[in-house]
């Protein structure tokens, strides 16, 4: 019945969640097809110089940390020093902080978050899974839980694992937890782990966001704090903004997982982003797809002559496959019921989205709606010329030429039938 | 132009395989971006048997962005604004979520279709979502005074058929 099924059985349409992941996570810092790569090559000597100068400043930061006592003055000096090193931390709406909320909830934007949070305010960061190396060098105010290894194991198995964390009544500074399960790029929010919401009945979300003059991701899925730091030192400037958002209360009588969900939604809507509902498998699948297309692009970028890949689908055509892939998705978005391999094949001929769409709509391209065999790479061909899914029930005629008159008649007959039924049921 | 082609394709599909109780098509031959639809109220719902007219206006970049939908027939429903605009998740793009409770999967994307929108509206007629109060009075009445709500709906059904 559905005219546009989400998934035609033979259509390898990208899962919707992939599109969401595209905008939310990064696997690679550099996209090879973009201009940025060229820009980066030009920038490289300058960046290297900056990097070397800034590494020596890291040493000064260590000295400040060891000789000046922790406090406002130390933080002030470090903020300036990190600013010169290219990591500028800006705090917004600090005055709006609800002092009753001793638990702060921050999103994850890079492996340097701990440093950023400590530069932004006096706090204790809670990290159950791993305290990144550089953060632990700089700051020792991490909450330690007793059986870290056990918790790690349990967290791997069960994302809603409860951890017994408590804030001592005497604690004068806020505790910061980062309940997100993955590092997003600030354009979405992944689902929250529950443990930070078992501690207090009120939490204050703080939103971290970043900006760079060159659009190179702050972090990637597989990066370490070391690589994140190196890129920060290499690039001219990274501005991280911490915005204090209104606090969130737990609803009476509801559990920690409801509280986590409520805070998750609230924070996402205040940040004007989506909550990313994905499983680990989704991310793994997406990651491998990204890696594959990245290596294709890399090849295309490295050599624009000669055969790019040996895949039979792309045979000896000269157009780089990524371009065809992009166009294929555009056509699928208009005609979701046509198998991708058929679209791709036609695009190899036309190299034009509009022409291909017209070809399918007017039935000029014949294809076999059966799924392609995986080995052949799917050479459709033969088969029916009708792009729509076949229905067994008798069809009404359709022609655009009959035009509006037939539509008016169908409306009239629907209304008349409805009237008859109504009168039969209720009497008049 | 991809939008026009897709609209023609959807019109064809809807004419050849019409969902039960729904008729939809362009208002006139020379403008495919403004449609009219007749939707029959689902059985066992307060709107059972009524035929409600609505208009859909498509953006030039359809299907990247969803159409706007508005009832022309008078209707009293928690998810329909007083001016007839329909407030359901499938008509919102993933980017805008004014109420903060919809998952992105429920919202508009190019793989959705006019048919899916119309079927969503049918199920909306059967099961109002009182979380999103486009019409606060209707929401309240739906929750607190169902008999009164059903009575108003029955009146509108009769009116929609031109039988009053």
From TrEMBL, chain A:
Ranges that cross the membrane: 35-64
CUE domain location: 323-365
Region called Disordered, residue ranges: 365-413
Keywords: Endoplasmic reticulum, Lipid droplet, Membrane, Transmembrane, Transmembrane helix
Pfam families for this protein: CUE (PF02845)
Protein localization: Endoplasmic reticulum membrane; Lipid droplet
Gene3D superfamilies, alphabetized: DNA helicase RuvA subunit, C-terminal domain
CDD domains: CUE_AUP1 (cd14420)
GO MF annotations in UniProt: ubiquitin binding
Chief place of localization: endoplasmic reticulum
Ranges of compositional bias, category Basic and acidic residues: 393-413
GO biological process: ERAD pathway
One cellular component term from this protein's GO annotations in UniProt: lipid droplet
Membrane topology: Peripheral membrane protein
Family to which this protein belongs: Belongs to the AUP1 family.
Name of protein: Lipid droplet-regulating VLDL assembly factor AUP1
Species lineage: Eukaryota, Metazoa, Porifera, Demospongiae, Heteroscleromorpha
Gene behind the chain: 100634008
From TrEMBL, chain B:
Residues at the catalytic site: 87 (glycyl thioester intermediate)
Gene3D superfamilies in the record: Ubiquitin Conjugating Enzyme
Pfam family membership, one: UQ_con
PANTHER family in the cross-refs: UBIQUITIN-CONJUGATING ENZYME E2
Self-association and partners: Interacts with AUP1 (via C-terminus); the interaction recruits UBE2G2 to lipid droplets. Interacts with ubiquitin ligases AMFR/gp78 and RNF139/TRC8; recruitment to lipid droplets by AUP1 facilitates interaction of UBE2G2 with AMFR and RNF139, leading to sterol-induced ubiquitination of 3-hydroxy-3-methylglutaryl coenzyme A reductase and its subsequent proteasomal degradation.
Record-stated family: Belongs to the ubiquitin-conjugating enzyme family.
Name of the protein: Ubiquitin-conjugating enzyme E2 G2
Organism: Amphimedon queenslandica (Sponge)
Gene that this sequence comes from: 100640970
């Amino acid at each position: 019945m559905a005219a546009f099924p989400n998934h035609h059985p033979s259509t390898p349409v990208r899962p919707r969640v992939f599109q969401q992941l595209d905008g939310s996570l990064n696997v690679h810092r550099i996209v090879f097809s973009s201009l940025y790569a060229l820009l980066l090559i030009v920038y490289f000597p300058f960046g290297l110089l900056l990097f070397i100068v800034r590494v020596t400043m890291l040493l000064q930061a260590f000295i400040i940390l060891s000789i000046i006592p922790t406090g406002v003055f130390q933080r002030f000096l470090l903020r300036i020093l990190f600013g010169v090193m290219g990591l500028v931390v800006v705090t917004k709406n600090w005055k709006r902080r609800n002092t009753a909320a001793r638990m702060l909830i921050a999103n994850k934007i890079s492996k340097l978050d701990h440093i950023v949070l400590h530069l932004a305010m006096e706090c204790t960061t809670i990290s159950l899974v791993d305290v990144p190396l550089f953060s632990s060098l700089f700051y020792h105010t991490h909450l330690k839980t007793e059986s870290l290894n056990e918790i790690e194991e349990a967290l791997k198995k069960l994302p809603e694992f409860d951890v017994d964390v408590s804030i001592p009544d005497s604690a004068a500074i806020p505790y910061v937890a980062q309940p997100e399960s993955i590092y997003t790029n600030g354009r979405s929010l992944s689902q929250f782990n529950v443990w930070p919401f078992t501690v207090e009945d009120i939490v204050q979300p703080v939103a971290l966001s970043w900006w760079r003059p060159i659009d190179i991701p702050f972090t990637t899925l597989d990066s370490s704090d070391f690589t994140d730091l190196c890129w920060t030192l290499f690039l001219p400037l990274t501005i991280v903004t911490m915005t204090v958002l209104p606090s969130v209360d737990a609803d009476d009588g509801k559990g920690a997982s409801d509280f986590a969900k409520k805070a998750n939604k609230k924070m996402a809507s205040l940040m004007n982003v989506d909550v990313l509902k994905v499983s680990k498998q989704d991310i793994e699948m997406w990651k491998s797809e990204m890696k594959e297309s990245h290596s294709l692009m890399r090849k295309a970028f490295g050599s624009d002559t000669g055969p790019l890949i040996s895949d039979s689908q792309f045979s000896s055509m000269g157009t780089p496959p990524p371009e065809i892939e992009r166009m294929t998705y555009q056509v699928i978005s208009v005609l979701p019921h046509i198998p991708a391999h058929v679209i791709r094949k036609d695009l190899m001929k036309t190299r034009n989205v509009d022409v291909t769409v017209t070809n399918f709509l007017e039935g000029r391209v014949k294809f076999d709606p059966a799924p392609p065999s995986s080995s052949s790479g799917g050479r459709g061909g033969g088969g029916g010329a009708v792009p729509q899914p076949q229905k067994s029930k008798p069809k009404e005629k359709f022609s655009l030429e009959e035009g509006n008159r037939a539509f008016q008649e169908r409306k009239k007959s629907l209304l008349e039938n409805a009237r008859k039924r109504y009168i039969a049921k209720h009497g008049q | 132009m991809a939008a026009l082609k897709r609209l023609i394709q959807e019109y064809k599909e809807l004419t050849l395989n019409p969902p039960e109780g729904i008729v939809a098509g362009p208002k006139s031959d020379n403008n495919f971006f403004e449609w009219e639809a007749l939707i029959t109220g689902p059985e066992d719902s307060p709107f059972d048997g009524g035929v409600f007219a609505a208009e859909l206006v498509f953006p030039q970049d359809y299907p990247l962005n969803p159409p706007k939908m508005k009832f022309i027939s008078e209707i009293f429903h928690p998810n329909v604004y007083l001016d007839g605009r329909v407030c359901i998740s499938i008509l919102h793009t993933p980017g805008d979520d004014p109420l903060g409770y919809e998952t992105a999967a429920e919202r508009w994307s190019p793989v959705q279709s006019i048919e899916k929108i119309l079927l969503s509206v049918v199920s909306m007629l059967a099961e109002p979502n009182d979380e999103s109060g486009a019409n606060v009075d209707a929401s309240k009445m739906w929750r607190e005074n169902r008999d009164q709500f059903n009575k108003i709906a029955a009146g509108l059904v009769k009116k929609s058929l031109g039988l009053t």
